[in-house]
Amino acid sequence: MIRFDTARLRIRPYREADLPGHRALRADPDIDRFMHWTPDHAAFERHLLAQGDRAPGTGRGWVNLAVADRQSDRLIGDHALRVDGDLATLGLALAPEMRGRGLGRELVMARLARLPETVWLVRAEIDTANLASRALFGACGFTLESEMEDADGPYLVMSRAPRRAAP
């Protein structure tokens, strides 16, 4: 399920009107340093708009979705999802003024409940310096699986089963 609402959030495909808000997310150094978005902003924006309601699945790569305030529909973050067979990988970024309100946990737990039945393991890949994301995913029941490094630097892989209760 691509589109869904939670108590306070609306997860949906990006729209043209979301692009200024997405640019603001990318311009925030506290967000940008932890994200591995393509440096070609225009190409990435075309990618966001072209996705539409495309469901993630094997061989389709990442799907980026708008995280909007449920009441106003204003963009407040980005949610990335990749599903490869029985493995799903999640990512998210929230605007600075939206952090510390439990919205990240609300999003992660809602996404876990809506993953395809075939998914048996869910991962989050987190920059080692991103303590807030590590705490968020830990609070959602993810545990440290491994520490890795790629061209962007070191990162943690945290994982959990999708349908067990969070602590």
TrEMBL record:
<feature type="domain" description="N-acetyltransferase">
    <location>
        <begin position="9"/>
        <end position="163"/>
    </location>
</feature>
<protein>
    <submittedName>
        <fullName>GNAT family N-acetyltransferase</fullName>
    </submittedName>
</protein>
<dbReference type="InterPro" id="IPR016181">
    <property type="entry name" value="Acyl_CoA_acyltransferase"/>
</dbReference>
<dbReference type="InterPro" id="IPR051531">
    <property type="entry name" value="N-acetyltransferase"/>
</dbReference>
<dbReference type="InterPro" id="IPR000182">
    <property type="entry name" value="GNAT_dom"/>
</dbReference>
<dbReference type="Pfam" id="PF13302">
    <property type="entry name" value="Acetyltransf_3"/>
</dbReference>
<keyword id="KW-0808">Transferase</keyword>
<dbReference type="GO" id="GO:0016747">
    <property type="term" value="F:acyltransferase activity, transferring groups other than amino-acyl groups"/>
</dbReference>
